[in-house]
Amino acid sequence: MFTEGGYTVTKDEFKADAILVNTCSVRDQAEQKALGKMGSMVQHRKKRPHVVYGFMGCMAQSRGQELFQNVPHLDVVVGTQKYHKVFEYVDGILQNRLERRMDDLKLTYKGDHICDIDEEKDSQNTIKDHVKETTDPTAFVSIMQGCNMKCSYCIVPDTRGRERGRPIQDIVEECESLVARGVKEVTLLGQIVNLYGRTEFPKVDGKSPFVQLLEAVHAIEGLERIRFTSPHPIGYRDDLVEAFTYLPKLCSHIHFPMQSGSDRILKLMRRPYKNEKFIEICKKMKAARPDMAITTDIIVGFPGETEEDFEETVKCVKELEFDNCFVFRYSQRRNTPAADMLDQLSEKVKEDRNQRLLAVVNEIAQRKNNALVGTVQEVLCTGPSKNNPNTLNSRTPQNKIVILEGNPDRLVGKVFKAKIHECTGFTLYGTPIIESLEEAE
Fold it and tell me: Among 302, 348, 356, 361, which one is most buried in terms of CB atoms within 10 A?
């Protein structure tokens, strides 16, 4: 919207006329980083007094007006259902300031504080994050907003509201427009993505709205890969498992949050499944796709977690052999039931369990990655590597990173085979196979 309004993006914050910080509230550390960053940017006001500063996202939604007290130079606070209003607010403030400054520099700061965290009907239909031109072969597509679950540790239902899904046809049209601009892979996004549309759209032939959506996106000509994140065990039905047997564009990877391997802790977390059910779903997915990679999220140090509870989690990780795990130390979030639970664990205990579980996770992941050396893998080349722009980044259907050398004009945006010749833990290195490139072209 800013681009369409005549603005250009700058990587140099000292040159910016508007600086927006998009925020997260899942962990306290994320909020503190956002507050610290915004606090440090007040220095820009000395030379550029007209600059507009704004917070967006979950922290903006949960804290609202109080952010103006914490950050005096803040101008705009926009909640999770009002992203489409950001340009209007920022541009209005900026134009007013520039006009007033022409009359009197002292008037530059007058007024101009906006806080909009109200709910808005059908706000999910405004989420289209893509500029008109793109050369990136991958794209994220938001299919819904909100969450109806009430996990005791999670602030998201308060910051995102209740589940609201976009119509299937709208999502398909957005994906079609992306494919027309060169996108080869889309990732469908939802807080609990596999519960998409469950309160709004009917089942058809026993298939959930989410599976109907997958089938519709799969039918788009020119689209080669589909991913989605993140599903919840409660909505992982057999129709979704079966979809992996007849929709080949679905990548052989799911990110499937487990959170804990202890039934007692899962109950305290208000996760409505038992560990046995989680394991059963994982085994069904691997039966549907033998090459399936599963990654997960795990919280350690939840209030009341005993050493026995923690060992149950370790046991499950060893049994399922996840391709990777994102391990988080429990973080108290205000206005969540878990924040007021007794038996809050010390940071020392949480850090100890975090490191012990990571050691198990890393050993499994690195062993599985090392086993790929010498094999041939299909990859989608996505562009220059972040760490070394002279090499290229690519991903397998299992979402494993493969670093390549080659001509970006020929490789980027292409799906082809590569031979893996080296592994450095979590990163694979490969060589493009010429024959597969010629077939792709």
Answer: 302
pLDDT in tens, 55-79: 998 888 888 888 988 888 899 999 8
Place of tokens 């589909």: 226
Are 386 and 393 in contact by the 8 Å Cβ rule? The answer is yes
CB 190, CB 143: distance < 8 Å? yes
Strands 415-423 and 376-384: antiparallel
* pLDDT more than 70, % of the chain: 92
Q: What is the pTM of this model?
A: 0.82
Q: Two tokens at 266?
A: 């899962």
Q: What are the CA-CA distances from residue 230 to residues 93, 194, 205, 344 (Å)? A: 37, 8, 24, 28
Report percent pLDDT > 90 for the chain: 63
Burial of 206 (0-12, 13-18, 19+ CB in 10 A): exposed
3-state SS, residue 360: helix
Q: Which residues of 106-126 are buried (b: 16+ CB within 10 A; e: fewer)?
A: eebbeebebbbbeeeeebbee
* Residue whose pair of structure tokens reads 């469908």 in the numeric block: 188
Chain centroid to CA 18: 25
pLDDT tens readout for residues 228-256: 999 999 989 999 999 999 999 999 999 99
Cα separation, 398 vs 410, in Å, equals: 23
Residues 134-173, buried b or exposed e (16+ Cβ, 10 A)? eebbbbebbbbbbbebebbbbbbbbbbbebbbbebeebbe
Query: What's the sign of the alpha-carbon dihedral 256, 261, 267, 268?
Result: negative
**Given this model, what pLDDT does residue 123 score?**
65
b/e string for 353-379 if b means 16 or more Cβ within 10 A? bbeebeebbeebbeebbeebeeeebbb
Torsion of CA 353, 359, 365, 369, to 10 degrees: 160
* β-pair partners for 428: 402, 423
Instruction: Give the separation between CA 278 and CA 258, rounded to whole angstroms.
Output: 7
Give the highest mean pLDDT range of 50-64, 153-167, 346-360, 420-434.
346-360
CA distance linking residue 124 with residue 2, whole number of Å:
20
Give dist(CA 409, CA 183) in Å, integer. 15
Query: CB-based contacts of 119: which residues, under 8 Å, 6+ apart?
Result: 81, 161
CA 47-54-193 angle, to 5 degrees, is 145
Asked whether 146 and 163 are in contact (CB, 8 A), the reply is yes
Q: What is the full DSSP assignment across 284-309?
A: HHHHH-TT-EEEEEEEES-TT--HHH
